[in-house]
Amino acid sequence: MNSPHIDSPDVRGIVIPLLSSLPGAAISTQPPTTILPLLSPILRQRVQLLSSGSTEPWIRLLTYDTAKVPKLKTIAQSGELEPHPASGEIEIDWDYDVQIKYRRVDKETLQTLVVLGQFDIFLRLVYCVGDKDGGGDGWRVGEVGVASDPSPLDSFGGFSSIQEAEASFETANSTANKQINGIYSNGISNGAASAQPVDDGEDDDDDDYWARYDATPARTPATKRSPAPQSIAQPSQASPYRSSSAEDAYFAQYDSVQPAMDPHDPDEEVEGMHAPPSGPSGLNRDAAHSVEQTELNETSGAWTLAEPPRSPSERSTRSRQDDEERAAGLVHPRPESSASSNGSLTVAKLEESAEKREQSEFGVKQHISRSIRSLFLLSRASGIDREEFERMVRTELDVLGMVEDDI
């Protein structure tokens, strides 16, 4: 990786001004303009936007761990960050109380962790490129937090110099690329080999298991009996399909079934007229005797019916009379006829008058209800309570009952 040379950060020039601003940050709601260039673009935008119009101190915006804000505020107000009276700077033992680590996160991010064990504070620095508001390329403060419980060094890791961090990143990056390329090439070269089955004992067991199903007959082990009567059953079980004549005979047996929910029974209307067939000729004795008697009467020319035979003219006259009688039974009074007009008009008038009376009564009731409501509102506005109003209404009703006849 060909990256530009990056110098180590000026830790003292960044840490001391920021630590000097923390006591004021624990009280003030707006950050000073001299501190904003020290912050990274992301942290700078966070502080500027969230502190605008807020009534809380802006020190809470320097850390992303909201649970550590109270402790960070306590450290800032403890007095340990006050400058020395002689030197005018915060005294820090840079050799023993300060730990610095470097880490390359990706090709664009290089970070530095500065842990100040004396004050229990850490600063995470980020190398920024093209930061015009911060003065160009350089190191900026990305976060300020509490350095204990847990220690940021555990999660940060890092190395003692930038060169070590860069070398470690290059090594890890090249190793990852080699592994990816090796997996890809091995997958292509071993594709044909992986397609070949592996001969082991488990495959033999699987073959034996599935071979059982190959030996099983395709037909079902037992043939279910058809619900059709035995008389129309299939003559042979060898044919897997049923003929159309057998299907017609199967469904024809349900034509004479009387549904349970149908109250109409056609057998009651023709009772005694049709007898079930019996005997070889399909007719019972009574039906045979009736047929023989009719044939005998017709042969001898003697009619035994209730009415004598009519001529064609008599039959046509009788037919017309029957039609007129049936039509007369269907005649009903029409709405426009004189026989029904008077009754219909009377009913319509009575219904109209009843409807008007109901409307009038409803309007009167509504008027009385609204009047009482208005009187109650008027009495309440005048200072009369509900009990007094009810007593007045009852008194008026009692007086109305006494003088009702005189009104």
Automatic annotation (TrEMBL):
Residues 191-246, 258-365 are annotated as: Disordered. Residues 228-246, 291-302 have a biased composition (Polar residues). Residues 312-327, 349-360 have a biased composition (Basic and acidic residues). It comes from the Eukaryota. Residues 199-208 have a biased composition (Acidic residues). This is Uncharacterized protein. It comes from Diplogelasinospora grovesii.
